[in-house]
Amino acid sequence: MPIDNPTELNTPRLSVVATVAEQPLSILLVDSDETSFLKARHVLKGLPITSLKSATEAKVASALVAAEHFDLVVVDPVVPGGFDLLKEIKDKYRWVATLVATANQTPSFMRQAVKCRIDGLLFRPMTAEEFVEQVLLLARAVNARRLRQQKRVLAIGAHPDDVEIGCGGALARHRAKGDMLNILTLSRGAAGGDINVRMAEAYRAAELLGAKLQLANLRDTHISEGTKTIEIIEATVREVRPTHVYTHCSEDTHQDHRAVHAASLVATRSVPNVYCYQSPSSTVEFSPQRFVDITHFIEQKIKAIDAYHSQVERMESIQNDLIVATARYWGRFAGHVLAEPLKVIRERTGDISPDPDPDPDRENEQSASKPLLAANQE
Fold it and tell me: What is the DSSP string of 126-155?
């Protein structure tokens, strides 16, 4: 093919690079002086901050941090309980940065601040530029680290209570580490009782686990492994972008459970880590390779299951003593007191940027006889 202009071969071509949208930030200001809030709001106006809240008391601030996510908490420790608040945030919330903004520059005050493992320090008076620079620097850094390291978990169940029974302890463990929890329930459990009651119970259980619940409306006992079920799961996968998925196993006498298992494997084919949990209807062919230590999370699991009053009253298989006994049985295979068993479909946890800080819980989750295709890492 003739070339009209040979120089075009050596002409650099510019490709269009999409600009990555900046992640919105969430900030909490804690100060006994309410005029400081007004000044801060004015200075931070127009910046990519979706939530800017304030508190004049440490107790109120603690409740706010527990109720919603903040990237940065700015504290003047002269607030009564200010240092305790800073310590609490560092002890409980992995992805929250702390900035001390104060006029107190005494050595003893500074020593206390350092003991609280603060991320930044500003002395008053300060310029607006100094304040904005520190706020954005710390909030953006912790936000980016959270996006890299925080696991996004999706637990899939055919009916209300399936997820809580099968992997409620693992979900509680994820929550304790600060991971994002999502539950997808594909039917409303009409075969097991009043759907309005079952839906209310499902939302209550999800709330107890700190999970976001999505309820589909497939017909109970008639769930297929075909396109409709796959599309529902795929839509949730696109929305959540999970790093970890928990779903039913194939070794199960309930047809809905087997169908959800098959549909899940298709819909989650791009997810790096996929596991299958055991149900009361699972058969003796269920052969797990991973045992999650839930010794410290059995109470949360039982509370989540107990939220399903209508089911607990009629099903022997989900009574508290049997839940504990089952966890005790599986715990012996990995040296745990209590454990939940999982089949490994795929395990590529290396897809998530590793946390530079060692995870004290890492050594407590062990695998036995992993498939050759599963990565040998936690």
Answer: --HHHHHHHHHHHHHHHHHHHHHH--EEEE
What are the structural domains of the chain? 25-147 (3.40.50.2300), 152-367 (3.40.50.10320)
pLDDT, tens digit, 9 for 90 and up, residues 283-297: 999 999 999 999 999
pLDDT at 373 over 80: no
Choose among 99, 125, 139, 106: nearest CA to 36.
125
The DSSP code for 281 is T
- Given pLDDT bands bounded at 50, 70 and 90, which one contains residue 22? low
How many whole angstroms separate alpha carbon 183 and alpha carbon 203?
10
User: What count of other Cβ atoms lies within 10 Å of the Cβ of residue 155?
Assistant: 29
User: Is the pLDDT reported for residue 321 higher than 70?
Assistant: yes
